[in-house]
Amino acid sequence: MPEVSDTQAFLDPDASREYLRSWKENVDRMAARAAAMSERMERLRVTARDGNGLAEVTIDSAGVLVGLELTDRIHRVEPAVVARAVMSALRDARAKAADRAHDIAVETMGPDSLSARTTADRMRQALERPDRAAADEDERGERGH
Fold this sequence. Notes:
Elements: H1 7-11, H2 13-43, E1 45-49, E2 55-60, E3 65-70, H3 79-109, H4 114-144
Antiparallel strand pairs: 1-2, 2-3
Helix pairs in contact: 2-3, 3-4
């Protein structure tokens, strides 16, 4: 974008028009990138399994569970173990989703973009906040046995 550094250049109608045209093009580019990022975030799905192979979960970009598969192995363990397996897979999926959201933001907005960093940070906080609660619950459950 051209620089309009002195008053005389700014008052020149041609220079002002060029500056505004360039500014508008820049805004349009940023808006298109933001729309592309939003679309990719909306389509984001992440799948993860627990370490014992009991559960597989799929979440969307908000960390909401959209799929759950349990293996036949769940019949050989206590329900509390199955619950912990699901929560473990969910935490892993959310961590992966936060990483993927960061990658999407950087790929679409650019590595130096404040918008990309802000979006990625907000998504990480939203996705990891439930993890802290789940980890605390797991800890309480393990202490109870």
